[in-house]
Specification:
Length: 84
């Protein structure tokens, strides 16, 4: 859920500068309309955030799975949280 929340928060604060036009949100082809209704950049950002964590998720399900050292990326946030 972290990458999804990061995408939503960064879009709101950095791209839209905390300004939303509520009336345009509900129009069929308003200012928030994307090609075919899909924002491919949001999906690309989500996949970029999730992809490095997949080996850690796989190892947490099956502990004897050999994914090399890639599983440690998933646990960086837990180690960081321990100190702060």
């Amino acid at each position: 859920m972290g990458p999804l929340a990061g995408t939503i928060v960064s879009d709101y604060y950095l791209i839209k500068k905390r300004k939303l036009n509520i009336h345009e949100l509900y129009k069929d082809h308003g200012i928030y309309w994307y090609d075919g209704g899909w924002n491919w950049r949001a999906y690309a950002a989500f996949v970029t955030g999730v992809a490095p964590l997949i080996p850690g998720f796989a190892k947490s399900i099956k502990n004897d799975l050999n994914v090399g050292g890639a599983w440690e990326v998933c646990y960086f946030s837990q180690q960081f949280r321990k100190y702060y």
